[in-house]
Design a protein that fits this description.
Blueprint lengths: L2 H4 L10 H15 L9 H22 L1 H11 L14 H17 L5 H29 L2 H32 L2
Helix pairs in contact: 2-3, 3-4, 4-7, 5-6, 5-7, 6-7
Length: 175
């Protein structure tokens, strides 16, 4: 089942989230298990399965990074696992710099400002890289798809780093 076809939307990185949500609600109404309460056990089971598939598809398409991965996998791009190392040494150096920047927040004389700086840097770099990946996905050729895959992995790093920022913020301001 193709998730884009399921929701009757164009297979593209740029998705109208309101349209997606509307299609999701319409589909869920048609297969909601409550509608099959008086049906056979098999029909109830099928309704639950279809409802779960629709939920999975919706969760995938509404999240930009999951959507990008789904598109790339649909195109036959083999996604490397998380332990696969980056060949981009510049990115590896930037990773270390960002982690040091995050670590330095704890020792800053103005924790609020230091945290805001980290958040701004991460947001800016995420947005720039996301735009590059968006362009690569829209180009849809072997080289651009591989480059988009590499950038998707980098974006996942930024996403994890943002989670660490949130944890740090919680630990610093929980009194």
């Amino acid at each position: 089942m193709n998730y884009f076809q399921l929701f009757n939307i164009e297979a593209s990185f740029d998705v109208d989230i309101q349209e997606l949500s509307s299609s999701y609600q319409t589909l869920q109404k048609t297969v909601h298990p409550d509608k099959f309460a008086h049906s056979s056990e098999q029909e109830q089971r099928i309704a639950v399965q279809k409802s779960a598939q629709i939920n999975d598809a919706y969760q995938t398409l509404k999240n930009p990074l999951q959507r990008a991965e789904y598109i790339l996998v649909q195109r036959g791009v083999e996604m490397p696992n998380e332990q696969h190392s980056f060949q981009d040494t510049g990115f590896l150096m930037r990773q270390m710099e960002l982690r040091e920047m995050l670590e330095d927040v704890k020792f800053s004389s103005n924790v609020d400002a230091a945290l805001a700086d980290v958040q701004n840097v991460l947001s800016s770099e995420f947005s720039q890289l996301s735009q590059v990946m968006r362009t690569q996905i829209s180009e849809n050729n072997a080289a651009s798809n591989l480059a988009a895959c590499d950038n998707l992995r980098k974006l996942k790093f930024y996403q994890k780093l943002n989670v660490e920022v949130d944890r740090l913020e919680d630990s610093l301001f929980d009194d």
